[in-house]
């Protein structure tokens, strides 16, 4: 009997799961003030803590939820809310098409995994895919932590409600913006990346200023795709 290694080697699944936890931890921390803010706003609109919890658990889309709650009224404008949510979340089609081939998941597993698709999880997975495939364990760690964190923080925000005050006083409203800047910086500084990010940001900012939300989301995404295609086509072939 071999006594040289009495402890079992850590499994690849456990290593991938820990890597997902490590990468998503800063995102989860940054999401807390945003979740508290959403819960407080939703409670002010008349939603109960249970309704906020169910909305976060089943809709699970920060941007779409904020857009919906801003337009919330009694009775709720269902058609307008559905259209705004569809327009804002249309970017997930592009993110899914980009990330799908890089994931070690097939069939129904991939569709179930993409319920938990967020901008942050997509960005982190794309960055990881530059070095290795995105495994189910890595994705599961990120998905479960961020989903649970968002659901709990929004529910807590609804419970606390008016006791929170204005999150802008402590800069909480800038938390996600700072997070996205950090994620984008991790993609490197190639010509294609810079052109894509710059074009997408500029178009989104202009559309938001002159037309307003939620049109800037789709406009920025489409402009970024077009810029990436044109910039990549001009790259010298090896």
Structure description:
By secondary structure, the chain is mainly alpha-helical. It has 2 domains: 13-182, no CATH class; 188-238, no CATH class. It is built from 11 helices and no strands. The protein has helices spanning 12-44, 49-58, 62-70, 78-89, 91-99, 107-113, 119-129, 136-160, 175-185, 191-210, 215-233. α1 (12-44) runs parallel beside α3, α2 (49-58) runs antiparallel to α8 (136-160) and α10 (191-210) packs antiparallel against α11 (215-233). It is globular. The chain crosses the membrane at residues 24-43, 50-69, 75-94, 137-164, 170-187, 194-211, 217-232. It comes from Microvirga vignae. Belongs to the AzlC family. InterPro entries: Brnchd-chn_aa_trnsp_permease (IPR011606). One of its GO terms (biological process) is L-valine transmembrane transport.
Keywords:
0% strand, 238 residues, membrane, mainly alpha, 11 helices, 70% helix, Brnchd-chn_aa_trnsp_permease
Topology at a glance:
Elements: H1 12-44, H2 49-58, H3 62-70, H4 78-89, H5 91-99, H6 107-113, H7 119-129, H8 136-160, H9 175-185, H10 191-210, H11 215-233
Write down the secondary-structure element order: HHHHHHHHHHH
- In whole angstroms, the N-to-C terminal distance is 54 Å
Proportion of residues in β-strands: under 5%
Helix content: 55-70%
Would you kindly provide a brief summary of this structure?
Keywords: Cell membrane, Membrane, Transmembrane, Transmembrane helix, Transport. The protein has 238 residues and is an all-alpha fold.
């Amino acid at each position: 009997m071999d006594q040289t290694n009495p402890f079992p080697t850590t499994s690849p699944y456990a290593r991938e799961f820990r890597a997902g936890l490590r990468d998503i931890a800063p995102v989860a921390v940054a999401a807390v003030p945003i979740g508290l803010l959403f819960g407080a706003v939703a409670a002010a609109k008349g939603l109960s803590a249970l309704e906020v919890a169910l909305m976060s658990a089943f809709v699970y889309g920060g941007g779409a939820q904020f857009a919906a709650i801003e337009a919330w009224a009694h009775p709720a404008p269902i058609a307008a809310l559905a259209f705004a949510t569809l327009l804002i979340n249309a970017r997930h089609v592009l993110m899914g098409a980009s990330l799908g081939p890089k994931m070690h998941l097939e069939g129904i597993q991939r569709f179930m995994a993409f319920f938990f698709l967020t901008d942050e999880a997509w960005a982190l997975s794309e960055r990881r895919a530059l070095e290795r495939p995105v495994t189910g364990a890595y994705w599961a760690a990120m998905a479960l932590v961020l989903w649970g964190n968002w659901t709990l923080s929004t529910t807590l925000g609804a419970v606390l409600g008016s006791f929170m005050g204005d999150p802008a006083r402590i800069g909480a409203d800038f938390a996600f913006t700072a997070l996205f800047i950090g994620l984008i910086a991790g993609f490197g500084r190639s010509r294609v990346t810079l052109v894509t990010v710059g074009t997408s940001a500029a178009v989104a900012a202009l559309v938001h200023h002159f037309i307003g939300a939620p049109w800037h989301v789709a406009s920025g995404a489409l402009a970024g795709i077009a810029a990436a295609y044109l910039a990549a086509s001009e790259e010298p072939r090896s």
